[in-house]
Design brief:
The chain is α/β, with parallel strands linked by helices and about 550 residues long. About 55% of the residues lie in helices and about 15% in strands. The radius of gyration is 26 Å and the shape is globular. The chain binds zinc ion (ZN).
């Protein structure tokens, strides 16, 4: 790759190495997919892939297109070399570099075709019987369909079975699930829907997983929608009640709520933001989502978009916004392309430098992944720290773990990327000095530096880990905690969401298991100063301002 880039431009070794080192993270997912597709043709009859949460999966499935863009960029660079050789020697013979480009193109095209071939690839989407999760599922399935990928199976996990004894919780839960599942079949007429019961303990180990395999069954039709009773079960017992705003004292400028998908981050972030705004009327609070799954709109039950807006019934000093990351990236891309064009339009066609124009255009497409969200978030950082800051505190509902971490790691990778671009531009000093291109890059680099500094300042920024009282979320939360520590991002609190309810023997056994998990979490975090907060399970999950406020009164300190 380096030799292709060196042949194609006036860049030197160091520039090219810098760019490739930074841009290659952009194709890690492609390489992952390629490795998978090669496994399928190397001795296995079937390869089962467990993918990352929603946003990340959608991105991964778009990866073949990225591979084709990489190949196109390299081909553009190589074309320059072919012309030179042709001119000097009178003929051109394809070499190793041409072979590599052809291979990348071929792999990208065949991967894209394999993913869309229903005889080779089967996509199963796993969800739970809750309106928010089903909403997200619907969005994802549609988005995949638009890309030509067909979801053939929908697995609805954690269905509540009839309780062994009468139990208000289990029965309310069953009515709620039935109502959520009702429209599913109508919505996805061409998708097989399978149901899987909730297991008392998370299935771990071969024997338990075999039992899960035997439990798959088609969802029984005809479950009637009944009125769902709202019930709160204060099983967290005698723990001290705490309002969300006072559970996280000394709130800085930026609080990020994150955790594994499906733990209820959005609900916790929304309840906290409402309570913070209500308890401090002078504090201007912005609740913000960078999760492409639109979960905040679902929590409030109103459509939200890129414009901050107040919510009916919530304190007036609270604004809510769902970042449209693609919009920010498109603006940046356009600025970049316009300025590249402006620069190269002024270079005479005879000059060798002119040939680098198309390459510079393509460089923006090789930006590391996550640049869209980072650009959007950098705007936010500016809104917090700039001279005309409009908010005192921003509460962020981040995308599920893997995605959020990647986002937090990227500001500095992206800054290096813009700096590598600028270092290259210095070679074209005369052009750059008079052109707008450098200004665009300098501005982005500055914003990324601000973002990076803000994230790592514990007086201003803190993370709230949201988890559930079960083994797998606990383990993932502890990994998240240590990654955040490595990144230099402070953790303020751990929220154990949706702690048990119900009175039947099954529910009581479940609550004993949850209590044990909370104990393990507490021991693992011993020695830290984080607040451990428990929130009650309610059915249906809190939806809308009033329900969120009522639910927040059930928060408890568990540490
Ligand atoms: Zn029960």
């Amino acid at each position: 790759l380096t030799s292709i880039a060196l042949r194609g431009t006036y860049l030197d070794d160091e520039d090219v190495a810098g760019l490739l080192r930074l841009s290659l993270p952009g194709i890690d997912e492609v390489v992952g997919l390629l490795a998978i597709s090669k496994l399928a043709s190397s001795g296995y009859d079937e390869v089962v892939v467990d993918t990352a949460p929603t946003g990340h999966t959608l991105r991964m499935l778009a990866a073949p297109a990225l591979l084709e863009r990489v190949a196109a960029l390299l081909d553009g660079l190589q074309a320059h070399h072919r012309e030179v050789v042709q001119a000097l020697r009178g003929r051109y013979v394809a070499d190793e570099a041409d072979g590599l480009i052809a291979e990348l193109e071929r792999d990208g095209a065949s991967l894209a075709a394999t993913l869309r071939d229903r005889t080779k690839t089967r996509l199963s989407w796993v969800t739970i019987a809750e309106p928010m999760a089903l909403e997200e599922t619907s969005d994802a399935v549609q988005s995949l369909e638009r890309g030509g990928l067909h979801v053939s199976t929908l697995i609805v996990n954690r269905i509540t079975l009839p309780p062994p004894q009468p139990c208000n919780w289990c029965e309310a839960r069953r009515r709620f699930e039935a109502r959520a599942l009702g429209p599913l079949q109508r919505r996805f007429p061409n998708v097989d829907i399978l149901a899987l019961p909730e297991f008392l303990e998370e299935p771990r180990g071969i024997a338990a997983l075999e039992k899960v395999g035997r439990s798959f069954g088609p969802r029984k039709a005809g479950a009637t929608a009944t009125r769902v009773a709202r019930r709160t079960f204060a099983q967290i017992g005698d723990a001290v009640s705490v309002r969300p705003a006072s559970a996280l004292p000394g709130t800085g400028r930026w609080l990020l709520f994150g955790g594994k998908g499906g733990v209820g981050k959005s609900t916790c972030a929304a309840a906290f933001a409402i309570d913070l705004a209500a308890s401090e009327p002078a504090r201007r609070v912005l609740l913000l989502s960078s999760d492409p799954a639109h979960s905040l709109g679902d929590v409030f039950g109103v459509p939200l978009d890129n414009r901050p807006r107040p919510i009916d019934g919530a304190p007036g000093n609270l604004h809510v916004r769902e970042i449209d990351a693609s919009l920010g990236l498109e603006q940046f891309r356009q600025q970049y392309l316009d300025s590249v064009d402006a620069v190269f339009a002024r270079i005479s066609r005879g000059s060798g430098v002119a040939a680098d124009g198309p390459t510079f255009r393509q460089l923006v497409d090789l930006a590391p992944p996550g640049i869209d969200e980072v650009i959007a978030i950098a705007d936010v950082a500016e809104a917090l720290t700039g001279p005309d800051r409009r908010y005192d505190t921003i509460v962020s509902d981040t995308a599920p773990t893997g995605h959020a971490l990647r986002l937090l790691q990227t500001p500095h990778v992206l800054r290096e990327w813009t700096q590598a671009l600028m270092a290259i531009l210095l070679k074209y000093r005369e052009i750059v000095a008079s052109g707008p291109l450098a200004a665009v890059l300098v501005r982005l680099s500055k914003r990324l530096r601000t973002l990076d500094a803000l994230l790592r300042d514990p007086r201003q920024t803190a993370f709230v880990i949201v988890t559930r009282p079960a083994a797998l979320p606990r383990e993932e939360s502890l990994r998240l905690h240590s990654t955040l520590t490595d990144l230099g991002i402070a953790t303020r609190a751990v929220i154990v969401n949706a702690i048990g309810a119900g009175t039947c023997s099954r529910c009581r056994k479940q609550i004993r298991g949850q209590t044990a998990e909370i104990g393990r979490l507490g021991r693992a975090l011993r020695g830290t100063s984080y607040a451990i907060i428990g929130t009650p399970a309610v059915v249906p999950p809190p939806h809308g301002v009033e329900a969120l406020s009522a639910w927040a009164s059930g928060w408890r300190r568990l540490d």
